[in-house]
TrEMBL record:
<keyword id="KW-0012">Acyltransferase</keyword>
<dbReference type="InterPro" id="IPR043129">
    <property type="entry name" value="ATPase_NBD"/>
</dbReference>
<keyword id="KW-0963">Cytoplasm</keyword>
<dbReference type="GO" id="GO:0061711">
    <property type="term" value="F:tRNA N(6)-L-threonylcarbamoyladenine synthase activity"/>
</dbReference>
<dbReference type="InterPro" id="IPR022450">
    <property type="entry name" value="TsaD"/>
</dbReference>
<comment type="function">
    <text>Required for the formation of a threonylcarbamoyl group on adenosine at position 37 (t(6)A37) in tRNAs that read codons beginning with adenine. Is involved in the transfer of the threonylcarbamoyl moiety of threonylcarbamoyl-AMP (TC-AMP) to the N6 group of A37, together with TsaE and TsaB. TsaD likely plays a direct catalytic role in this reaction.</text>
</comment>
<dbReference type="InterPro" id="IPR017861">
    <property type="entry name" value="KAE1/TsaD"/>
</dbReference>
<feature type="binding site">
    <location>
        <begin position="134"/>
        <end position="138"/>
    </location>
    <ligand>
        <name>substrate</name>
    </ligand>
</feature>
<keyword id="KW-0408">Iron</keyword>
<protein>
    <recommendedName>
        <fullName>tRNA N6-adenosine threonylcarbamoyltransferase</fullName>
        <ecNumber>2.3.1.234</ecNumber>
    </recommendedName>
</protein>
<feature type="binding site">
    <location>
        <position position="180"/>
    </location>
    <ligand>
        <name>substrate</name>
    </ligand>
</feature>
<feature type="binding site">
    <location>
        <position position="274"/>
    </location>
    <ligand>
        <name>substrate</name>
    </ligand>
</feature>
<feature type="binding site">
    <location>
        <position position="111"/>
    </location>
    <ligand>
        <name>Fe cation</name>
    </ligand>
</feature>
<keyword id="KW-0479">Metal-binding</keyword>
<feature type="binding site">
    <location>
        <position position="302"/>
    </location>
    <ligand>
        <name>Fe cation</name>
    </ligand>
</feature>
<keyword id="KW-0808">Transferase</keyword>
<dbReference type="Pfam" id="PF00814">
    <property type="entry name" value="TsaD"/>
</dbReference>
Length: 333
């Protein structure tokens, strides 16, 4: 089965073609990061317009890379939410037009589920059940994956997402968008023990997260230093902030694996690309005798291969969409 995936929920226009769920034949990603960088974040209106310009050339490039023609496509999977409504609509409209004209089934994929499924593309042997920590620009959640099509939310953030906190703190430090990779890099030169930022909810016996207080603590730290005319060490702020986020994520994820009795943890979403997070979870899982998986770097951030993979497994249950499919910006897991 050849599945074509389309992703346009934020600032990447991506089309991928995969075979039998797990083999990537093409995964073309046109990123808009340089365009949004000068605004310090994604401008939704510009993102939608760029998706419209990019979608057909990206589709053509994916077909070329896979050495396939449109007639070879067996089904179309598209991310229909969560995300920016105008951006999502470009992918959804393209997917509906393709599915209708080719007479093939259409699959409506939840973008967050796609992030988890990126791991099946990176690890051929990986199978559910497992606990997944999904950490992206818009979400922070712990998911109980009982099967390919059976999962439930264990807990999520009450306010900001982890990636959002990385982006906001990076902005405070004068680093360009997206902030996560910049903090990751700068933190390597800093002392993670230099500043003791608050670890909200970490010791609470629940699976919820809260990162807005941490963001405020960083603002206050920078503000107070400014008032006293003390220059801050940006690398120390980055390293201490990053360690705080990772301490919380690692603590709650291990707790979730213990309470569900799962012996496998799977990391997903853009923040999964963080080198320290990968390192710390690898170490903690080894100590706790838990198998640990994370996607290859290119599959951590938004891409259409993960959407196609999720779509493939969804197709096995016969859950197809029709031409009434619409974008759902606040879609839950
Ligand atoms: O999953 P994703 O590509 O888009 C959403 O679905 O939101 O995640 C993007 C987020 C951004 O907040 C970005 O700063 C963060 O992932 N990110 C990182 C790293 N690479 C990307 N955060 C921390 N460390 C990284 N190396
Ligand atoms: Zn994403």
């Amino acid at each position: 089965m050849i599945t074509l995936g389309i992703e346009s929920s934020c600032d990447e226009t991506s089309v991928a073609i995969i075979e039998d769920g797990r083999k990537i034949l093409a995964n073309v990603i046109a990123t808009q990061i340089p365009i949004h960088q000068k605004f310090g974040g994604v401008v939704p209106e510009i993102a939608s317009r760029k998706h419209i310009i990019n979608i057909m050339p990206v589709l053509d490039e994916a077909l070329d890379k896979a050495q396939l023609k449109l007639k070879d496509i067996g089904q179309i999977a598209v991310a229909y939410g969560p995300g920016l409504v105008g951006a999502l609509l470009v992918g959804v409209s393209a997917a509906k037009a393709l599915a209708f004209s080719l007479g093939v089934p259409l699959l409506a994929v939840n973008h967050l589920e796609g992030h988890i499924f990126a791991n099946f593309l990176s690890h051929r042997q990986l199978e559910p059940p497992f606990v997944s920590l999904v950490v992206s620009g818009g979400h922070t959640a712990l998911v109980d994956m009982k099967g390919y099509n059976s999962f439930s939310m264990i807990g999520q953030t009450r306010d900001d997402a982890a990636g959002e906190a990385f982006d906001k703190v990076a902005r405070l430090l004068g680093l360009p968008y997206p902030g996560g990779p910049q903090i990751d890099k700068l933190a390597r030169q800093g002392n993670p023990e230099a500043i003791d930022f608050p670890r909200a909810l970490m010791k609470d016996n629940n699976y919820e997260f809260s990162f807005s207080g941490l963001k405020s603590a960083v603002i206050n730290y920078i503000h107070n230093a400014g008032q006293k005319n003390i220059s801050i060490n940006k690398a120390d702020v980055a390293a201490s902030f990053q360690k705080t986020v990772i301490d919380i994520l690692v603590c709650k994820t291990i707790m979730a694996a213990r309470s569900t009795g799962m012996k496998t943890i799977v990391l997903a979403g853009g923040v999964a690309a963080n080198s320290q997070l990968e390192e710390r979870l690898t170490e903690k899982c080894r100590q706790n005798d838990i198998d640990f998986y994370f996607p290859s770097k290119i599959l951590c951030t938004d891409n259409a291969a993960m959407i196609a993979c999720r779509g493939y497994y969804q197709s096995l249950t016969g859950k197809f969409a029709d031409m009434n499919l619409n974008a759902v910006p606040y879609l839950e897991l």
